Each structure stands twice: as structure tokens, then as C-alpha cells.
């Protein structure tokens, strides 16, 4: 190669994102739900816990999307619920990342005893299904929001630890990290300046996946009655409350479940697009 | 004579992931006749591999053949269906890749991989193909020809694997053989046997071949004609003799000029080591390695090295001999188990974390791959600015000024400060890498293979820069390299490392002139020479034959070289470790042979 | 190689011990103890509490009680349930079969299907089939299990009335009836694990595509299908084993929601009951069982990976 390299061309707004149609649609839906989270309650036709009619009212009846077990407006509760769902998922994911990434990177860089102890412990924790862990802790400590957030955050951080330790291991053997060590830099500098910036793409993808998982996990807990409690509106809780309606032909449980699905599917599609974008084609893909 | 391959006006385009297509091969035409070896030479990125792959109708991911005709035996490859192309690849054209270790499937037995193409394409039955393969193994001088096919790739050595890949390529009796840098990943000592085997078998089978390489001396040994490429364009095409001795094109001349003479052809003034200044670095009796407990692996044993102030100490040896480990021990990255490192007269703690700032500052290490040694997410200004701030507390304008100075020092424009490493070429990155070590104002710089990943021309300019900096800044270097020619032209002192032990050390003039340690002699003789016929001459010596019988083995007792030494004394060499013995002032050799029977 | 396998087994054992310590410590740290749980309403009666603790041996140091409990488990003594006074082993034995039936039926359908579809997807990478499978599986993974479960139930049990919504299998059920009852829970659980395993199979194989030896195979004129099956798959076995193990463990211990929806009286339901009734020995036993399943299947996956790796099978 000659001694002159190309400068990458400056990025040009949206076009440089190279959105696929699937990713665009998913992005639009996600943005829609985020907007709803901000303005939902203002748009809601009724109060969060307001009873407007009979229980399990049909679609297009009293409420546009029908009413629930207690006769509350489904649409209203959906609009309120997105806030709870998104907020809880976000805060638990953030907690899990703070804990998981700091421990994971430290283990990857310090190695030795610190790494061995913490990895073994995490491995032992991995042996238990996450729902069971949450079930036992919440069962014992009660179902307050704080307990819920801390429990879910910590349970999620087990997985985050594993992933960030692996990423950290890959990066910490790079020569630029060795260079920094040879210069005499401390652990904090190495984590924040050398490892973290290079770990961003996989970590962002991981954040997306964990966020999805957190939504699923929380809604699962709600579904088991261990999550957000009445009368607050939460999508998972709405499914649980109205499950009995299925046999009465009411869709009041399926609608919130579908909403959760739309959120998580879109999130996953975006993450997938993000990951695909980072890699080129392989030999076999272009064979025919 | 008929053309086996003829390529006319070939254009290939490539693009970075998601980027735009740009031409990487621009209108190349040439042909290869039956029984002829055409070499493609040029620097990395000049399109050598791309062109040779195109003759199989193949373009790497991210590339596409955009124009031109490629005819194999008169049939146009570009018009073929997928099926026809599969047949072409399995039957007519075969490929030998740079790294056999990576190109053999680790999960399949070697023999099965060798015969896969002819059997799959229905040319032969499995037993016929196996017979042909065993025959090829014998011709390629592989040991245990009847059974080597039953082994897995990890069970044979790198040099053998490379020859096995040639067998794999030849198993279908191809009309055209493509060899893509087939010896670049090998050590010089291994290169000889492989090169010789390739050359013989190509002659014997009378196949046409394309030989891709960047090493002119290698080309001189194997090729009939040479095609010189630069930036995807043909610069010159001619007979080997003409290109090597009488290059016409400017670019070819530049390439030829960058080739350094083999060390034993250098004129070195004979001086003795009496008047050396005090050492700036002393590493004494170092024993070191990796791992602990049962997986403990000792690499260096009892290694002692001095770097006198203001001098260049070259450390040479094949890969895996512990050169990098030595540098890492000195830098404190791999703490030694025994021994002591003294930098500028002060004892240095084995662990880098526990060293004081002065020690750290005085001794800087530069890694081989600038690609991985520079954090891709930091701008050049940050990369160079950090040591300035860390060691000297510089901030703001002062720091920026010094960054500009450093860039000037390594002959880069000051505007580069705002760039990221990804926006620089390989040579430029290596200069930044150097500049970063200079930012500390060190007294000693450890250079670990800093030119190995660079093209000859660029490497030569980096060496010139190092030389210049040494004089201007009064630096001392420990210069690690497996490339003897580079070291010989640059170093004052030489340390020869083999399998973790120092086998010879002294002034360059002493080490590169007789008497030699047997290993040093092997190294020196293995450096390819431009002279045609060199290969045949050297490959048939006892030394070369003995050396190809074994590979680097880290051993606790005995002479580390005893499994490959033509002069080994039975019963002594493999059981008793020879100590370093003084030959003359400053020159030491570790060998059981008496001085007067040491190789001359 | 044997050395490696033995090492790996010891490691598994260590993890098992650690897991047991975690369980024990957790039930120890959580507020309240067995005595309080037994007394329930009367827990404020200090004298009775003390007497009961003495009787149950709760006043001994935690270490002693831990070893007591741990060695009990090793000998198959899971303890006695507080809520029912029955030996926990008896309570579990019936339930294990319900959980295992669901897991085995699902595994038999999902694992082969996932492998086959994953490989087809890899062979046709970038094609229409691959792309649609990618979106489908991505969505399936993202959909809450209860949505799939309730959706299937609405369609097949409530609307069409083809399949049963209650998977509480009675001993007198014949095979047809069992299939009728189990179809929906198996499908619900199957979708989730199928999607996960399929994606991982495909990804593990595709991951190998960038290796130089795949390029070599292409240059030998080998067609795609053979490259995937013969050259890529053998090198992708290890991650595939790992993901199968993960999903097997999940099919046993992660099925709380499926068991809840379809009223399967399995181990997860037992655990939920234990939590609700603060039946500490029962919680400990269930947790230990789940942990052991996870550790054992992962151990098996690693051993298979070691056995199928020629580097380890035939050292230099
Ligand atoms: N981090 C490591 N862990 C274990 N072994 C290593 C490590 N780095 C290098 N080695 C081994 O040490 C030996 C010497 O390596 P090295 O010092 O890099 O030699 P050289 O620089 O001469 O090629 C080799 O056998 C290599 O495989
Ligand atoms: S000691 Fe023996 S084996 Fe070693 S180099 Fe000398 S002669 Fe050869
Ligand atoms: Mg090295």
C-alpha cells in the first residue's frame, strides 16, 4: 500500500445509517412507544384506575379496545402502562450494566484471584433460573418497587458480567492495552480510556438485548403476580389480571401481551440491524 | 506453446463494509504458459492475491470482478455457471494459501482433505487418490509418507503443513497452480526446505504456476518471469534475469534498492569490544515464562543481555525463541521468575505496576503491530499527548506544541494530530507508534519486530528514521527481529537467542564473521540471496538437512539446538547444557565444540 | 483428554458445592427462619420459638447445619416439608415426572428441528428462506412466553377446540389424550427454545465461514451444502452443544410460566407454593435440584465438546 490512506468520507445524516426496511419500521414503532410514554397519560380518555363499564367489555364498546376484568378502559391502561414498563426495564438494565460491566472489566483486566473468585461465584449463580432467583428474593422481601428493581437489576447483571468479561478479555490482550500498562497507567485509566471505548459496539448491542430481556422478565414477574402491583397499570400485570377473560372471548389479556411483543420484537430487530451493520459478507454468502 | 492462463484487461473492484466500490486491480493483462512459473511481486495491497484468485473466478468477500476476460485453457471463466466453476476449481486450477495452519480444517484428517477435491469431483476413487497423495508426500520429502495422511493438522509442523498443502493442491493434477505467499509465514530456516520442495515438484509435474510474493530473493529462485505490480497496475513484466539484474521501470528499481544485502556479504570493520560505555540496561540471568501450576511453561532460561549506552543491540532468532518474551520481561509486562533487570543503574521491579515513573520513562517498548498497538478510538493527538501529560505533566498548548514536534521528528505532517489511527497507512502508524515512545524522552527503546509487518521500501525508511533519531537524541535500542539483513545493517551488538537461551553474543562484526555458533551459521546461510541457483546450493548442505529434521524445542537440559545441529556430539550435546564461552573480548558462544572446529 | 474431562468434572462439582452454599446462605440471610415459619401467627412467643429452635437444631452454628443439610442431600435425604410434614422427596417424585415429560417431549421436537432448520438457514445464508427464518426467530425470542401460550390457547383451545388447555395429566390418560393435553404447552415452550437454538446453530456455523479453511474449501470447488456440513459444522459443535445444554436446563427449570398457564403440576409450581408458604426446606430442595440439572447438562455439553475436538482427542 502506498503511504497515503483514504480518509473515510464524512457521514451524511440518516442515509449513513443504512437502515433496512425492517429496521426502519421497528425504529418507527419504538419511537411511537417512547412518545406515548411521555404523552400517554395526557391522551388517555379516562383515569388510570377509573371504572367505565362492565367487566370484559368488547372492543368498540365502552372503551375503544374494550374493558378489563374490573371494567376499566384497556386503552387508558395501555397508555399509562407503557411508562411503567419502559421505565422499569430501563432502570433495571442500567443497574445491571453498571454492576456487570464494572465487575466484568475488572475481572478481565486484573485477572488472578479476583477473576477466579468472582467468575466461580457467577457461574454458581448461573445455575439457578433467573425467575427462581427473583421469586425467592421477592417472595421473602415483599413486592415493593425498590425490591423489584434491585432484584431484577442484580439478576440481569449476572449475564452482563459474563458478556463484558468476555469482551474485556478480548480487548485487554490487545497491544494498546499492553502499551498503556507498560507506560504505567492504572486500572481505572485502562478500563475507561482503553477498554471501554473499544467495547462500545458490542456493549450497545448487548444493552439492547438485555433491555428486551428485562421487559420480558419483568412482565413475566408481573404475570406471576410478583411485579408491579395494583392499581398501577403495567402491561404484564394487565395480562395476568385478564387472563380469565380468554375463556369468555375477551381479548383484554392479549392486547397488552401484543403490545409487549411489539416493543421487544422491534428492539430485537434494531439490535440485529446494528450487529449486521458491523460485519461484512462472508465467503459463502456470495457463493451463488 | 499454449497458454494455460491468459488474463486480459482485468478490473477488480473492492469496497469496505458498507462503502462504495473502488477499483483495486486496474486493467492487468498477462499470460502463463504450460510449465512456466510467473511471479507476481509488489507491496501489500498491490493486488497480487486478488489477481491470482480472479484466475479461479473467485473474488474475496467485498470484492467483485468488474471487467476483463480470464481464460483457462482457452475457456472464459467469467462465462461459466456455478457448477462449471466448481469443476474448474477442483480439477484445473489449484491454490496454495499463505498460512497452511489456518487453511487446513482442524477437524478433518489431513489425508481426507488432500484427496477431497479429486474424489468429490469424480476424477479418482478414494483409494486411487490416496495412492497419488502418498506419492506426492514422498516427492515433497515429507516424513512417514504412508501415515502422515491419517494425522490431524495440529499434529504436524508448520513447514510440513505447508508442503502438505502443496500436495492438496496437486492431488487433482491441476493445469495451473497458484501459490500465494506460500513461505512468508515460515522462518527462513524452514523456508528453504519448503521452497525447494515446491520448486522441484512444479518442474516435475510440469504445471503452470503463479507465484505470489513480496520477497525478491525468493522470486529469483523460483520464477521464470516476473510481473511487477503497484497499486493494481502492471509496472513491468520480464524475464527473472532481466528484472533482477537490469530493472527497467523506476518502481522496480526502488524495490530492488530497498533490498538489504545478506549479512554475511556486509563489510563490517573488525573491532573488539574493549571500549564499550557503561550499560544502560542489564538483564542478568533471566528465567521467565508464562502460566503457573501444571500449565507452567518456561521460555527464557538464564538469559543475560547488556545494552551499552548509545548502542543498538540486535536480538535475533526464529519465532518462538523468546525474543518478545525478553522484551516483555524488561518492560515489566511479564515478570521474570529469576534474575534481575537494571535500567540506568537502578534495579527495576519485575512488575510494571510497581516501577517508579523514572524507570518507566527511561525504558519504552514499541510493539510489532502498529495496527493493534494504537488504540483505534483515540486521536493521534491523544495517543501522543497522554505520555507527555503522564510523564512530564504537560497540558494545553505546551502539550499540543510538543505533539507537533514529535510528529515532525518522525517525519509526519502536524495535521495528522487530529486523525485516528485507522486513517493512516501501515508505515505512518508505525511512525506514530515510535513517536509515542519518544514522547517519554526515553534513554532506551525496546523495538519488537517494528519493521516486520511493513513492506520492504517502507521498512527501509523506518530503519533510516530509527538511525537518525538515535544520533539526534542519543538513544539506545534493543532491536528485536527475525530478519537478519535488517539487524545486520543497523545493530552494533548481536544477541542470538535460540529456544529461550542465548547461544551467541558479541559485536555485529564478531557474530556475523566466523567462527560461528552452528545455529548462527544456519541462520546466516538461510537468508535468501538474489543469486539464481542459491536455493539448490544451500538446500543440499548437511546443515540445512539436519535443521529441517526438527523444530524449535524448549528444553531444560542439553544444548537447545541439539535436535537440529549437524555437528552435534552424540551423548554430550543433548544431556549437557553448554555454557557461554569467551572466544575473544566481547564475543561469547555457547557450544561444546572447540573454537577451532566451530563453523567457519 | 481424560485429564481434561476429570478436571471439568471436578469443576462441576465445585460449582455444585458453591451453588449449595449460595442456596443455604440465601435462606439464612433472608428474614425469618424455619421456626418462625412454623409458628406463623404465634411467632412472637419467644419461649415457644426458642423451644422449637432447640428441637429443630436451629441453634447450632450455621456451618454445622449446612453440612448436615448438604450431606443429607448427597444421601438422597431432601428433608421434610414444613407445610405438609411429608418428606420432600415424596412430594417431588410425582412432580418430577410432569416436568420431565414436558421437557422430554419438547426436546424431542425442538432440538432436531432447530438443528435442521439452523443448518438449512446457514446453507442458504442471505437467501429468502434464511431471511424470513431470521425475522421469525428474532420475533419469537422477543415475544413473552405468556403471549405465545395465551395466544395458542385462544386459537386452538378456545376458538377451534382442537387441543386441551389443561395439561394436568391423569394416570389413566391414554397416549392420544396425553398428546391432546400436552400439545399446547409443548408448542409454547418449544417455540422459545427452538428459536434460540436455531439462531445459535446458524450463528455458530456462519461464524466459521470467515476462517481461511472455508475459503480453501471454496477454492477446491466444493459446493455450499457440503462445505457447511463437512467443513463448518464439525468446528461449530462446541457452541451448539453449549446452547442445547442451556436450553435443556431451561426446559426443566425455566418453565414457571408455561406450568402456570397450562396448570401443569410440576416442580416450578412446587417451588412457587414453597415460596408462598415460606416452606424453607422445600425451597432449598427445589433450588438445589434446578441447580444440579443446570450443572450436569452443561458438564455433559463440555465433555462432548472435548470428545469431539480432535486437538484434545489426539494430542501432538
Ligand atoms: N501469553 C503467553 N502464554 C503462553 N505462552 C506464550 C505466551 N506468549 C508467548 N508464548 C509462548 O512463548 C514462546 C516464545 O514466544 P515469543 O517470546 O513471542 O517468541 P518470539 O518473539 O521469539 O517469536 C512461544 O512458544 C509462545 O508460544
Ligand atoms: S553444543 Fe552441540 S548441539 Fe549445540 S550447537 Fe554445539 S555442537 Fe551443536
Ligand atoms: Mg515476537
Q: How is the biggest beta sheet of chain A arranged? A: none
The whole-number mean of residue pLDDT values of chain B reads 88
How are the strands ordered across the major sheet of chain B?
16-17-18-13-19-20-22-21
Structural domains of chain B: how many? 2
Mean pLDDT of chain A: 82
| Number of DSSP E strands of chain B | 22
Number of helical stretches of at least 4 residues of chain B: 23
Instruction: List low-pLDDT spans of chain B.
Output: none
Kindly name the structural category of chain B.
alpha/beta
Helix tally of chain A equals 9
Global geometry of chain A:
elongated
Please trace the helix and strand order of chain A, writing H or E for each element: HHHHHHHHH
- Secondary-structure arrangement, i.e. CATH architecture of the largest domain in chain B: 3-Layer(aba) Sandwich
Q: How many separate domains of chain A?
A: 1
**Radius of gyration of chain B (Å):** 26 Å
Structural write-up:
The complex is a heterotrimer of chains A (288), B (600) and C (316). Helices cover 67% and strands 0% of the residues of chain A. Chain A has one domain: Orthogonal Bundle (MetI-like fold), CATH 1.10.3720.10. With 288 residues, chain A is mainly alpha-helical. Chain A is elongated. Chain B is globular and about 70 Å long. Chain B contains 23 helices and 22 strands. Chain B has 2 domains: 257 residues, Rossmann fold (3-Layer(aba) Sandwich), CATH 3.40.50; 283 residues, Rossmann fold (3-Layer(aba) Sandwich). In chain C, helix 5 packs across helix 8, helix 5 packs antiparallel against helix 10 and helix 7 packs antiparallel against helix 8. Chains in contact: A-B, A-C, B-C. The structure holds adenosine-5'-diphosphate (ADP), iron/sulfur cluster and magnesium ion (MG). The site of magnesium ion (MG) has 4 residues of chain B, from helix 12.
Describe the structure concisely:
Chain A is mainly α and 288 residues long. Chain A contains 9 helices and no strands.
Q: What's the helix and strand layout?
A:
The complex is a heterotrimer of chains A (288), B (600) and C (316).
Chain A: H1 21-43, H2 74-110, H3 112-126, H4 130-141, H5 145-172, H6 175-183, H7 187-223, H8 235-242, H9 254-278
Helix pairs in contact in A: 1-2, 1-9, 2-3, 2-5, 2-7, 3-5, 4-5, 5-7, 7-8, 7-9, 8-9
Chain B: E1 3-14, E2 22-33, E3 37-41, H1 48-54, E4 63-72, E5 75-76, H2 82-92, E6 93-96, H3 100-103, H4 110-114, H5 116-120, H6 126-139, H7 158-170, E7 176-180, H8 188-205, E8 208-213, H9 216-222, E9 225-230, E10 233-239, H10 240-245, H11 250-258, E11 279-290, E12 297-308, E13 312-316, H12 323-331, E14 338-343, E15 346-348, H13 357-362, E16 363-366, H14 370-373, H15 380-392, H16 396-409, H17 426-438, E17 444-448, H18 456-473, E18 476-480, H19 484-488, E19 493-498, E20 501-507, H20 508-511, H21 518-526, H22 534-539, H23 542-548, E21 581-584, E22 587-589
Parallel strand pairs in B: 3-8, 3-9, 6-7, 7-8, 13-18, 13-19, 16-17, 17-18
Antiparallel strand pairs in B: 1-2, 1-4, 4-5, 9-10, 11-12, 11-14, 14-15, 19-20, 20-22, 21-22
Helix pairs in contact in B: 7-8, 8-23, 15-16, 15-17
Chain C: H1 2-29, H2 34-39, H3 46-56, H4 62-74, H5 88-123, H6 128-142, H7 145-159, H8 175-208, H9 212-219, H10 224-253, H11 256-261, H12 267-277, H13 280-308, H14 310-313
The complex binds adenosine-5'-diphosphate (ADP), iron/sulfur cluster and magnesium ion (MG).
